[in-house]
Amino acid sequence: MWRRKHIGVKIAGYVLLLLLAIPLIVLVGVSLNPGVEQIFPPQGISLRWYYNLANRSGFIGALQLTLILAVGSTIVSTTIGLLVGIALTRFEFWGKDLILTLILSPLIVPQVVVGMAFLVTLSGLGVVSSLLSLSLLHCVITLPFTARAVVSALATSSRSLEEAAQSLGATPARAFLSVTLPIVSPGVIAAAIFAFVTSFENFTASQFLVWDRTTLPVELYNYVQTESDPPAAALSSLILLPVVLFVVVFNRFIAQHMFSGRL
Amino acid sequence: MAVVNIRNVSVSYGDQQVLNSVSLTMESGKFIAVLGPSGCGKTTLLRVVAGFSEYSGSVEIDGKAYDAIPPHKRNIGIVFQDYALFPHRSVEENIAFGLRLRRISRADIEQKVTQLLDLLQLQALRSRYPSQLSGGQRQRVAIARALAVDPKVLLLDEPLSALDKKLREEMQVELRQLQQRVGITTMFVTHDQEEALALADKVVVMNKGNIGQVGTPSEVYARPRSRFVADFIGKSNVFEATLDKSEGDALVCKLAGGETVRIARSGEVRSGQEIHFFVRPEQLVLCKPESPAADGAKLAGIVRHVVYKGSNESIHIELAGSKMVEAQVVQSRGWNIGDAVVVGWNANDALILAE
Questions:
Q1: Any long-range contacts for B131-139 (C-beta under 8 Å, 24+ apart)?
Q2: Within a domain: B229
Q3: Helix (H) or strand (E) holding A164
C-alpha cells in the first residue's frame, strides 16, 4: 500500500517537472531548426540561427551591455551587501530594522514601479539614461539578494569564533577575514550568483532606462514585437544559459558545502 | 604564571547592573572556580578579564593595568562554552592559528603543535576537522589552541557543560591534572557546584552581580557565610529560630513550633535574636521514635519520600508545621513512606548563617 502510494507521488512529481520543462524544451528545440519554420520537434539539428545571431550587431551590443551590467552590479551589490551585513549583525544602532526593510523593499515593490520610479526621479534630476543610471538600477535590484544572504550567513556564524581568534592575537579585522569570511563565503558566493542571474535576465525595470543601447531581454522583447522567427528562439535559449549554469553550480558546488562550513 | 587583580569592576547593560563592584585576586598558578546560577554575572566577569566587555574598575595582571589593552593584545587564553573551533580548519591548523599570527618559524610552530597534540592526546586526530570530532575531543582541541600561545591566564567558560555526565567527570580529572602540569593561572566559570568543589583551589560564589563568598572548597562548603551560599553549594536544611541562651560550646534556641534545639556557637550573638541556621542532609541523624536521639535536636517527623541513589538514599521528611527536610543516609535502615521518625543532629553540625 505504502509502496504504491510512493510510486504515485513519484509519478506526480515527474509529471510536474515535465510540465515545467516542456516550454523550455520546445523553445530550445525550435531554435535548432535548420529552416525558417518554427516547428517542434525540429526538422534536424542546426546551429544556423545561433550563427545568425552572432552576425547581428544589435544582439551582440545588447549582450555586451547585459554582461557589463551583470558583472558590475554583482560586484558592487555583493560588496555593499557584505558591508551592510556586517553593520547589521555586528553593531547596535538605531534604525537597523528600517535599513534592512529598505534594502529588501525592491523584492516586494513591483519591478514596474521600481523602474518607473527611477525614470521619473532621474528625469526630474535632469539625468539622461546612461550606463550609469542603468547600473544604479541593477545594483538596487540585486542588493536585496546579497544583503539578505550575507545577513543570514553572518547571523548564524557564532560570535565566539571571532572572539576566539582575537584572544589568540588576531586584530578584529584579521579575525573577521580569517575566520568569519571563509565560513560565510559559500552563502556569499551563492548570493553573488543569484545577483548575477537577476541582473542578467531583468527586463521589467530595465526597459524604462534603456536608451539607444538595450539589454538582451529588452532587445529580445523588441525583436519579437515585429518578428517571430527562429533567431528569437535562439536568443531566448541563450538567455536560459546562465540560469542553467546557476542551478548546476549551486547544486554541485555550493549547496553541498554550505552546511559543512568548508569551501 | 601570573597574578590577576580585579578591583571594583562594575558592568551594566542599560539600567541592568550585571557586575556590582566586584573585587577578586587570582593567585599565580591557582585554579579558581567562579560559581553561580545563570545570570549571576560569572561569564561577564570572565569577559571582563578577556577584554570583551566594557567595564569600570580595573584589571591588573602582574601589577600592570590591562584596562586599555584590546583583547588581541592581552595574551589571555579562552575556552568557550561552544569551544568556538574554526570549522574550516583542521585540528592542527586550529592549534597553530595563534602561533602563525606571531611570526614564529615554521619549524617552531610544528614543534609546539606536536607538543600540544601529545599533551592532550590528540596525535591521531591532527588532520581531522572539528565536525569529525566528539565533544570531548573538541574540548581538548580548544584547550590546546588556547594554550599554544603560552597565555598568561587561561579562562574556561563552562567548558564541561556540553559533555555527558561520565565524560564530564573524566574531563574534570584531566583538566585539573593538565592545569597543574602547565601551572597556569586559571579561571573556570561554572554553574555546577560539584565541579567547582572538585576542581578548584579557590571557589568564588557569585549571586546577582556580587561575590557572595570566596574560599577553599571545604571552607565554602563547611562554613557558608550566607543562606544563598549554603543553598547553592550542596543541599542544606535551613531553619529559623530564636536564640535563648548559650550553654558551653552550644547555643540553645527555639524553633518556630517551640521545640528547643542546640546549635554550634559562633560569633557575637544575643538572647532573643532571630537567626537562621542550617544542617547538611548528610549530617541529619534519623532514628526510630523510641531510640536515643543525637544531642542537638529531637524533632518528630514523618517520612514522605525516599529516593534511592545507589550508594546512598535521600529521605524527605515532614516535620511539625509542614517543614520539609532532607536527610542523606548511607545505609538504609529500611525507611518507608509514612514511617514516624525522629530527626536530630549534633550541635556542632548546625551552623548559624550570617544573613
A1: B131/A260, B131/A261, B131/B87, B133/B91, B135/B162, B135/B163, B135/B164, B135/B167, B136/B163, B136/B167, B136/B170, B136/B171, B138/B83, B138/B85, B139/B79, B139/B83, B139/B163, B139/B171
A2: no
A3: helix A159-167
Same domain flag for B247 and B99: no
Contact A137, A115 (CB under 8 A): yes
Report the complex ipTM.
0.81
pLDDT over 80 (residue B39): yes
User: Does B232 fall in a domain?
Assistant: no
How do residues A89-98 score in pLDDT, each as one tens digit? 888 888 888 8
**Phi, psi torsion values for B293, nearest 5 degrees:** -95, 175
Give A20's contacts (C-beta < 8 A, 6+ positions apart).
none
C-alpha–C-alpha distance, residues B337 and B302, integer Å: 8
**pTM, to two decimals:** 0.76
DSSP A87-113: HHHH---TTHHHHHHHHHHHHHS-HHH
For residue B42, the number of C-alpha atoms closer than 13 Å in the C-beta half-sphere is 27
> pLDDT per residue over B116-172, tens digit each?
998 888 999 999 999 999 988 999 999 999 999 999 999 999 888 878 888 888 888
Identify the three-state secondary structure at position B236.
coil
Side chain identity, residue B128: R
Does B267 share its domain with B220? no
Cα→Cα distances B133→A141, B93, B126, B128, B129, Å: 43, 14, 11, 7, 7
A175 touches chain B (CB under 8 A): yes
The answer on pLDDT for A262 being more than 50 is no
Residues 6 or more apart whose Cβ sits within 8 Å of residue B218: none
Task: Supply B225's cell numbers.
Answer: 557565610
Which grid coordinates are listed for B103?
Answer: 611570526
pLDDT of residue A258: 52
Range of the domain at B275: 237-353
| Min Cα separation B132/chain A (Å) | 11
pLDDT exceeds cutoff 90 at B77? yes
**Is the distance from CB of B134 to CB of B170 less than 8 angstroms?**
no
Q: Which domain holds residue A197?
A: 57-259
Question: How far B105 CA sits from the closest chain A CA (Å)?
Answer: 16
Q: Which residues of A touch B98 (CB under 8 A)?
A: 168-169
Whether A171 contacts chain B with CB within 8 A: yes
